[in-house]
Amino acid sequence: MTQIRAAALAAPVLLSLTAMQGAAQQGYDPMRPTANPLMPGALAGEPSEAAAPNPDFGNLPDGPGVEETYYQCVACHSTAIIRQQHLTDERWDYLWTWMVEKQGMYEPDDETRDIVLSYLKTHFSAER
């Protein structure tokens, strides 16, 4: 009877070890994209609409405005600071004004400004 109990308790441990060994054989890849359960639709199983990162432009998501955004922003900081943002549209507008007025950011023509802000709001907004 004691052997049966021991075997029953050991079975879940063996299953866990087997699963871990299978994962280890695949190899750990810290750069492998993983599902983020906090992203909209992730828990509902909806496909992600995130654009693929563009290595030519600091891994910013590919799409209209990526080039203009890259060249406007990397004059002062890396794209890493952009990629970690999740701001409201209003906050992006505020930050633009703050960077121009307080940080000395070059202010491009209105068309380029609109392209860059539209890109940032599309890809790095808390509202989408």
Characterization of the model:
InterPro entries: Cyt_c-like_dom_sf. This protein has 128 residues and is mainly alpha-helical. It has a domain at 53-123: Cytochrome Bc1 Complex, Chain D, domain 2 (Orthogonal Bundle), CATH 1.10.760. It contains five helices and two strands; from the N terminus they run H-E-E-H-H-H-H. The chain has helices at residues 2-26, 66-73, 79-83, 89-103, 110-123, and strands at residues 53-54, 60-61. The chain has a two-stranded antiparallel sheet. The longest helix has 25 residues, at 2-26.
Short overview:
The chain has helices at 2-26, 66-73, 79-83, 89-103, 110-123; strands at residues 53-54, 60-61. It has 128 residues and is mainly α. The chain has a domain at 53-123: Orthogonal Bundle (Cytochrome Bc1 Complex, Chain D, domain 2).
Largest sheet: 2 strands, antiparallel
CATH topology of the domain at 53-123: Cytochrome Bc1 Complex, Chain D, domain 2
Strand order of the largest sheet: 1-2
CATH architecture annotation of the domain at 53-123: Orthogonal Bundle
- Low-pLDDT parts are 7-24, 31-48
Measure the end-to-end span.
59 Å
Total number of beta strands: 2
Structural class of the helix and strand makeup? mainly alpha
The CATH class of the domain at 53-123 turns out to be Mainly Alpha
Order of helical and strand elements: HEEHHHH
User: Radius of gyration from the CA trace?
Assistant: 23 Å
Shape: globular
Question: Helical proportion?
Answer: 40-55%
User: How much is the average pLDDT?
Assistant: 77
Q: Indicate the proportion of strand residues.
A: under 5%
